[in-house]
Structure formats: structure tokens, C-alpha cells
Amino acid sequence: KVANQHALVRALEPSLAPLPKLASNSFNRILRLEAKWARFFWAKYFRAAAQDLFTRERRKAQGPLNVALNYGYGFLYHAIEWQCIASGLEPGIGIIHKLRRSRPSLACDLIEPFRCCVELYVMRHLDEMHDVKFMAGRFAEMMEDHWTYADHRFRLRTIIRLVVESFARALLSQNTALFRPFSLHARDACL
What we know:
By secondary structure, the protein is mainly α.
């Protein structure tokens, strides 16, 4: 997630320094680093979008930019949740996100690297994100748009399938090297 958001911010601000490599850290340390990065990322993102709102509203969003982000993330959640089910995985049992009633915790885990796709689409089509009808069309288009994954170009919905299937293979074989997460390619990060 952080690496993909960094690629997006570098597209907005090419002078941004490269992201330092993360050493093997404790789980809690990684979560703290992610939270620190989020504050940096959202400030840059909202400034680039020329919005007066500089904070990310997660629940019951009021600002149009936050409403659009939540709407787009909803598209991803549903696609990932359905792909988990199709791949024989239980979407309610996550690894990072804790088990909570009525929440697809595994889908919450697997969505993280894909969030940048929504953030890019919102930025690219900012002038249309005030109307739900336009948002729905743009996010449906996002799912059919081609992105780079494993050195090939695929539709986003296909990449979601490939990522979830690789996760299932890695889980079943207990071989983490089989998992191929989505990583935003610089060519796709262009606005």
C-alpha cells in the first residue's frame, strides 16, 4: 500500500525522494509506519486535488472527494470479496485486519495495494466525482481499464483475480513466495 501511494505521490511531485526499503520489523512497527505515511500521503493528495479539505473522512464522509474515495473503495471491496469466495477463501477471516462481525477482513487485507487505483481515478476524473452516476461509470471503467501486473497489461478485475488466486496458492502450499501482490507501475501512475 505504502509503495503504491508513494508511486502516486511521485507522479504528482517528481522531486519526492525514493521510498526507503523496510527492513524486517515487528508487525506493530510496520502499522505505525503505515499510519505515519498516511498522514503524509493524504496531505499531499488533497493539496494536489486543490481541495480545502485536508483530512481523510472514512465513515459518513461529507466532502465530495472523500465520498468519491469511499465509493471507489466499495467497488474494490466487493470485487475482492467475490473473488475470495470464488477462490475458495473465507473473506471474513483476515490476517492483518481483525475478525469483526459482518466485515470481510481478508478483503480488507487484500484491498490495500489496490487503493491507489481508486485514488488515481478520483484524481483523473475529479470534475465528475460530484455526481454518483458519473462516479459509478468511472469506477466501472476503472475495473475494465488495463494496468500493469507481472510485466503484462491486464484489466483490473483480472489482476484482482490473479492476486487472490496467488494468495490462495501461497496459503494452501504454505509458500509465501507464490503470492504476487499488485504493485503500481510508474506508467500507470500518470495522471
